[in-house]
Each structure stands twice: as C-alpha cells, then as structure tokens.
What we know:
single chain, 164 residues, mainly alpha
Amino acid sequence: MDGKVGRILREGLVGGLIAYVAVVVVLAILNAAQGRSVFYTAAAMGAVLFHGSEAATAFALDPAPILAYNGLHLAGSLGVALLAAVLVYEAEVHRSLWYIGLMVGIGVMIFAVLFFGVVGVEIGAVLDWPTAAVGATTWGGATAGYFLGVHRGLLDGSRQALEA
C-alpha cells in the first residue's frame, strides 16, 4: 500500500475510533449522572432511527438497537475521520488551502448537532439539546484534537499562510 494512502487510512481509522470512544464515554457519564442506564442514549437513538418516532415512547434497553446505533455511530465516525485525514494531508501539501478543512470541520460540527438534535430531540424526544450538543462537540473536539496532535506543524503552517 502506498505510503500516503496508508498514512491517511491509519490516521482516519485512529481518529474515528478516538472520536467514537470519546462520545461513548461522555454520554455514558451523562446518562449515569442523570440516573439512567449508561446505554440509554444508544438505546433511545437506535429505537428512533431504526423503529421510528413511535418507538421513542416505549423503547427498552434491548441489545439490537444499541448495537445497531453503535455500529452506525462507529461507521459515521470512521467516515468523517477518513475525510478529515484526507483534508489534513492536503492542507499539509498545499498550505494555502487549510481553510477548506476548517470550513468542512465547522460544517460537520453544525450538521452533527442538528442531526442529533432533530432526530433525538425533535423527532424522538429522547434527548435534550444540551446532550446533543455535548455529544457532537465531544466528537468534533476529539477528532480535531487527534489531528492537531499528530500534525503539530499544521497550525504553524496555517498561520504562516495567513501572514503571507
């Protein structure tokens, strides 16, 4: 496998796993703090996504929607992180295009908050807006933190591109 492609795949997969685990841990802590099962959010979102809004009123902590939702969440995290890895690579090669990655990152964060807010709060009524915002912010922050940690020179190069 090509060095560039291998690096992008590795960083995308690691970044996606880190973001996924960060959200799972934060939401489990939030659920426990609210006196719910640590699996509450996954069960609720799985019930709404896979069984419709009518399932929101009578969902149980059934393993099927929990596993299905977590699979979808993991796949989404990996997909977004792979896209982020490509954008980070391109931003390193073409420093003057760093803002494209920034704009895509901001767009993904807005989409995540709106998606989980609409599905979890408005359609299913199983989440509240702060939980949706905390989950999406954790997800975006973990992904951004990983890539900025791995590519420490990216911010310096972006600052230099701005000053030029």
